[in-house]
Amino acid sequence: xxxxxxxxxxxxxxxxxxxxxxxxxxxxxxxxxxxxxxxxxxxxxxxxxxxxxxxxxxxxxxxxxxxxxxxxxxxxxxxxxxxxxxxxxxxxxxxxxxxxxxxxxxxxxxxxxxxxxxxxxxxxxxxxxxxxxxxxxxxxxxxxxxxxxxxxxxxxxxxxxxxxxxxxxxxxxxxxxxxxxxxxxxxxxxxxxxxxxxxxxxxxxxxxxxxxxxxxxxxxxxxxxxxxxxxxxxxxxxxxxxxxxxxxxxxxxxxxxxxxxxxxxxxxxxxxxxxxxxxxxxxxxxxxxxxxxxxxxxxxxxxxxxxxxxxxxxxxxxxxxxxxxxxxxxxxxxxxxxxxxxxxxxxxxxxxxxxxxxxxxxxxxxxxxxxxxxxxxxxxxxxxxxxxxxxxxxxxxxxxxxxxxxxxxxxxxxxxx
Length: 417
Ligand code: ATP
Ligand code: MG
Description:
Distance between the termini: 54 Å
Enzyme class: ligase
Subunit structure: Homodimer.
Number of strands: 16
Structural class: alpha+beta
Mean pLDDT: 95
Bound molecules: adenosine-5'-triphosphate, magnesium ion
Radius of gyration: 28 Å
Helix content: 25-40%
CATH topology of the largest domain: BirA Bifunctional Protein, domain 2
CATH superfamily of the largest domain: Bira Bifunctional Protein, Domain 2
CATH architecture of the largest domain: 2-Layer Sandwich
Strand order of the largest sheet: 1-5-6-11-10-9-7-8
Catalytic activity: tRNA(His) + L-histidine + ATP = L-histidyl-tRNA(His) + AMP + diphosphate + H(+)
InterPro entries: aa-tRNA-synth_II (IPR006195), aa-tRNA-synth_II/BPL/LPL (IPR045864), Anticodon-bd (IPR004154), Anticodon-bd_dom_sf (IPR036621), His-tRNA-ligase (IPR015807), HisRS-like_core (IPR041715), HisRS/HisZ (IPR004516), HisRS_anticodon (IPR033656)
Organism: Psittacicella melopsittaci
Number of helices: 15
Largest sheet: 8 strands, mixed
């Protein structure tokens, strides 16, 4: 036997016993998205590396070290998409969907990041993302957050997730704050972790995110972003909080929440859970009023989020267990050479809406009944050459063992009764 070739590290198969859950959760989310008149956009998995460098930010973890990038045969640098926002904005600009218009969009599909694989963190994972363009209004931010709350409600997760929000103001406010933060931290440089030392020059706000205890101790007395915000940003955040409260949505203000991406302004948020260990954030996003402009389009405000689909599925499984694939309604037992008749019977039932597992492999009757029991179907149809000649089938209720002979012409009506 030749050597087995295995999948790449961090690249997972979704096996047949898991796809039912995978798809049914997505259907639930898509139904809610439709009620919010948010329509799907599909964009490529591969884009120019420059798109992500500009759209996600050179100094972000994603662009610095997490992209799958390569050079094509004609010397173009391309990357597998690490996230969906940049590609979505590129498509909107390219097709004239953002200029002077409102767009309510979502995407779903795989994203790729070169990270150390662990539970809830993979190299290929799925995100469902929402991007709303053309509206700058705290009520819109609230609408999207309330829609997320409906996701959790529909999936039975409301009690397991917490909404954390913050405002990071304008890029000017952040630049001023960044200077003050760096001025303060320089004096304690030796006490910071290596990543944070590097970020002093590249992306100082990310230091707030550091998991290092010494760094966090130094940060305890650092200047805070809230003191650098302008009045408009403060008012915007107050309005958002008031609308959420008026709509019964609980939240926690987390002043350290800055998010990893460069392009956010004002509102940022995360939905977190305590049930998934270190991979606590299920859904995260914020406002990005400058991104379209950064990517070469006309200034267009935006608000959106990315939802980590595997983490969502893990959370559902953690608190509710796994949803099994529904079994067949009818299992057909082929006794003898009756394949063409059983195909005809199966077709009739399938066209009437039944899920039919036709045991074309045949075999010993006893073994076929064992298979029928294992299939979970409540009904077995038995077909043999005599029944076929008479255009009949035997219907057996597997729970009770009750059995009757039915004319093919009456079969659908009889099964529906
Ligand atoms: P983290 O801090 O966990 O690395 P992030 O800030 O990099 O998250 P985003 O880029 O905002 O995450 O992506 C949105 C969501 O996608 C995350 O909140 C998470 O649920 C999910 N996600 C991000 N990276 C991965 C990954 N490598 N594997 C699985 N899910 C991921
Ligand atoms: Mg990350």
